[in-house]
Write a sequence for this structure.
């Protein structure tokens, strides 16, 4: 009986650990995406302030922002 109890305890621990770890990874991924998009938005605002709204630098930063948004959208699917 003790052997079965140990096996059950191990199995229960494994299930609970896995169940807790998976959502935290998803939250980390969401946070990472959010930070990347915020950084790209900041870089775009900065490029616009420094070089103008239609500058080559601002266009480059717009592309980077769009790519960051697409990556996050793709990762969440």
């Amino acid at each position: 009986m003790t052997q079965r109890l140990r096996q059950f305890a191990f199995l229960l621990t494994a299930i609970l650990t896995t169940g807790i770890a998976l959502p935290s990874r998803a939250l980390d991924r969401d946070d990472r995406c959010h930070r990347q998009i915020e950084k790209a938005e900041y870089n775009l605002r900065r490029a616009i302030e420094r070089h103008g709204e239609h500058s080559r630098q601002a266009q480059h930063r717009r592309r980077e922002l769009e790519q960051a948004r697409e990556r996050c959208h793709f990762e969440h699917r």
